[in-house]
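Sanity check

After download, print the first record. It should look like this:
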Amino acid sequence: MKRSISASIAAILLAATNAGADPIQLLGADDFAWEATPEGVAFAALQGDRFTEPYQALVKLPSPPHVKTANMHGVMLEGEMIHYLDNADPEAARKIGPGSYYSIAAGTPHVSACVSDTPCIAYLYQDGAFDFLPVQQ
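Expected structure tokens:
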């Protein structure tokens, strides 16, 4: 049931911004091509080239402290995670799970961490090209 709800949320979000493409696009969980980054984040592209333009993707986290130059918006699909400012106490961070929304403003040094035994997967929209600028500790 959770996978069905998660897939429905992702499909609705994707359809809302997929003007000019096929009027209906359906992707099953087995249709996604996951690509891992050196930082340990995995992406499954939904729309756009994340290296050159705004994009939508499914993302598997966690990530080390970093900054992005574009705004990020996400909806949790599986797992439970926390997002917190770099140098903040992770124990004080609010946990979010399936169906929860998050946004992180451009230029905000932060950490995104999966805190559940279930892998964390989120729908992600970023309003600019992908970048991942590690924060020096």
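If your output differs, re-run the checksum step. Summary of this record's structure: The first strand starts at residue 34 and ends at 36.
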